[in-house]
Hints:
single chain; 212 residues; mainly alpha
Amino acid sequence: xxxxxxxxxxxxxxxxxxxxxxxxxxxxxxxxxxxxxxxxxxxxxxxxxxxxxxxxxxxxxxxxxxxxxxxxxxxxxxxxxxxxxxxxxxxxxxxxxxxxxxxxxxxxxxxxxxxxxxxxxxxxxxxxxxxxxxxxxxxxxxxxxxxxxxxxxxxxxxxxxxxxxxxxxxxxxxxxxxxxxxxxxxxxxxxxxxxxxxxxxxxxxxxxxxxx
Length: 212
């Protein structure tokens, strides 16, 4: 029975250690965002249209190298953010599962009738909690490590987008000229419509005597 109990005790410790190792591997620099894009989920479409994209359409601004740089960074950030979200989900699952395990274990202690076995289980619970807390602490640090990289990439992406917006703002002069020309045309057409009609011609008396 003691051997079976020790085997049972080893399961949560092995689970916590495996989860911690998985999180550390996921945050390792060897797992490069630039070289390993397999299995990634595409970023969710934006609920609203991107005002920067709308502005580029309005100005018909190509953007050139600035636009290419922004697109590359934006796509990389989307992939990185998706992976960071997955790390946080894994951490949350480990925390929830570990908490539930120890709550159930503590509740089981009330079923003991043998004081010696209960004391042994309580000691094992304290040891397991210490090991699990250590593993979860390592996992949290791994998530923070990954999040810091994603935050730096987000800053670079925002800076590239705003540089592109600054260049595109200068291109607004072209649609401004077109709008001004169209406004002047409309004004002139309305003015001609509203202009008073010329008075009718007055008959010439000389023409009347000639007719007689």
